[in-house]
Fold this sequence. Notes:
The chain has 488 residues and is α/β, with parallel strands linked by helices. The protein folds into three domains: 4-38, no CATH class; 46-325, Rossmann fold (3-Layer(aba) Sandwich), CATH 3.40.50; 371-481, Thrombin, subunit H (Beta Barrel), CATH 2.40.10. It contains 17 helices and 18 strands. It has helices spanning 46-49, 53-63, 80-91, 125-133, 148-159, 175-182, 187-193, 219-229, 267-273, 279-288, 294-303, 309-315, 322-325, 337-341, 343-350, 355-358, 465-481; strands at 4-12, 15-26, 29-38, 68-73, 98-102, 113-116, 139-142, 163-168, 194-206, 211-213, 240-242, 253-264, 371-377, 394-401, 405-410, 419-426, 432-445, 454-460. α4 (125-133) packs parallel to α5 (148-159), α5 (148-159) packs across α7 (187-193) and α7 (187-193) packs antiparallel against α9 (267-273).
Amino acid sequence: RLPQDGSAVVKTNEQQLDLRISTMPTPRGESIVVRILPTKVRLMSLENLGFNPDSVSKFRDIIKKPHGIVFITGPTGSGKTTTLYACLNEINSSTRKIITIEDPVEYEMDGITQVQVNPKVEFHFATGLRSILRHDPDIIMVGEVRDPETAEIAIKTALTGHLVFSTLHTNDASSGITRLIDMGIESYLVASSVEAFVAQRLVRVICPECKTVDEDCMPGVKSEIARSLGLSERDEITIYRGAGCDHCNQTGYYGRIAVYEILMLDDVIRAAVLDKPRSDHIKRIAMRRGLKTLRQNGWKAVLDGITTPDEVVNVTVKDEYIEELAGTVSPARELSAAEATTPAQTQSGGNGLPQSAYQQRIYPRINTPAPFTYRRVRRPGVTTDPVVEYGEERQAMTHDLSAGGMCFYCDEEIKIGAVLEIELTLTGEETRCIHCLSRVCRSGERSDSQDARHRVCVYFLDMTTEDRRAVSQYIQKILSSATNPVHS
């Protein structure tokens, strides 16, 4: 027999339940798994999901952004869909049009348009997402990014001013970056569109009726918690367990809660993403900038008496770099001029990334100057600089150019994260004008004494496929005719 999937609806205790059934043949008979999903549920708040107070504030800031894409990551059955629904419930209002595309629709929500994919009629996530865009949504939820086509459409949707939520199957938050790149998504699209990756795991909650101090906890567990959280020997560590009672059916646990790992993409991490480093390098950068890992947040839940060490160890992996990064955590900041203009210091010394990771470019670059104009663009929700003249057109020449971005010199200081409207002129057999938005990823003063004192690097945001192909062809022609092409 072949594996089979099916569904059923049953009523029990005046409640309607949706059953998702999966069977698989084994030598001794059928293996059957039944997922029980209530069709009507009480949507959980962010606090009830398992976020600590600091994480709740950070997560609320993420989901209330006007545009961008937020990925919830984790294995099957880790509560990703519940978290997505909690996000939508948090931001749902009569002034916002929210559309979801799911496989299947697990919970019905009031005030939200929910769409279910149907592979039998070739209605997949990608085709549904294209149709959703014609319905003028403000917020979109895509149940899962399963293929490169869905990923690319979702990311480009986020770049056009929509807020998008979706899920990925990865081991941790930083692996979400490499997962998208491995699917064929260009790193500049990931860097410019994704706001955050949130990894999560479910742990069982200690039964409140039989909760007691665990006197038999091994000393090694307490030392591991102290090492991971940076606690001193004087800090008292108390660990709890459930003794077992009728309330919890003698298991010691009652209910489940999630532990999270929130990776917010700030300007430094976005700049690192452009150069396609491994996920462990991204994680190391993020930990230097304050990331709390799944294991660390799990240990916090243990100290708060919510769960047990066994639960945390079962669903998380031991953190690397803890001793190496001890005492080095710093808040998010912009790169200094010295860091931005000294690649070796920024890439290997400052962020802990090997130089080779920054040398792996997606597109070839040329040093041939090309004229262009740029204008500063006001960013929604960002305080404007009173000194900056927004909208004023300025002329400049590129220092180096690729289909993913460019560097140029200018007289004014432009901070990392600034958005520029670019109009680039390519000359050759025929002149072509390229128009797009770009974001500054590196900025600093020049080390040599030239009239244009500042060096600025940008990556292109909403460049069309045709324009990007034209830039690539323009560069390839110059490289093929040059005797000493540059591949930096």
